[in-house]
Design a protein that fits this description.
This protein is an all-alpha fold. It contains four helices and no strands. The longest helix has about 35 residues. The protein is elongated and about 50 Å long. The chain starts with a helix and ends with a helix. The model has no long low-confidence stretch (mean pLDDT about 95).
Length: about 90
């Protein structure tokens, strides 16, 4: 049951981020929701794999991938925002 709850949380979070991207007005607002999608979804999915598989190789891989996404996602969003700002100034 815990796995289903975590996966439902991940899907609902991602759907919220998709709705935000579709409804946002400017490119920076869209980027904000897109970046949140890279943070909201991976963590519950990795936790669901951890609950299902315990500490086996698939669970460690899922946690590692989620960690990489949690670290690199915001960095990518910041650099994309800087590129958008540079283009807006031209």
């Amino acid at each position: 049951m815990t796995v289903w709850i975590l996966l439902t949380l991940a899907v609902c979070g991602e759907l919220g981020c998709v709705a935000g991207v579709l409804l946002a007005r400017g490119p920076l607002a869209r980027l904000h929701y897109a970046a949140a999608g890279g943070i909201v979804g991976p963590l519950p999915v990795a936790l669901a794999v951890l609950v299902e598989e315990s500490f086996t190789q698939p669970a460690i891989n899922a946690l590692l991938i989620a960690g990489i996404m949690l670290v690199l996602g915001p960095l990518l969003a910041v650099e994309t925002a800087r590129a958008i700002r540079r283009e807006e100034k031209r």
